[in-house]
Amino acid sequence: MIANDRLLPGQPSRSSGYVASHDFTRFSQLQRNSSYSSADISSRFGARLRELRRSRNMTQLEMAIAFGIDRSYISDVERGRKAISLPTLEVIALGMDVSLSMLLKDI
Known about the structure:
Blueprint: E1 2-3, E2 6-7, H1 21-33, H2 38-55, H3 60-67, H4 71-78, H5 86-96, H6 100-103
Antiparallel strand pairs: 1-2
Helix pairs in contact: 3-4
């Protein structure tokens, strides 16, 4: 939005449609100062996935067969060693019968 003909932080410029580069610099600084890194989110999601799988009394192999995902990939995700794509998140959410927001809750 525009206030007094000035762009508010994080708003796209009128001419380019892109967010100003100083906003990306600010984001990078916040990310560096944050207590979480990108590796941490992978570990937190992996713990969440393991918790959900175990709560349904599923082994990694059973989950792999039911969802069409490689067992070793599930293991790597649960250990925070592999990133996961949005389509795979959707497959897991559907297979676990939870919403995406519930799948990502408290991560």
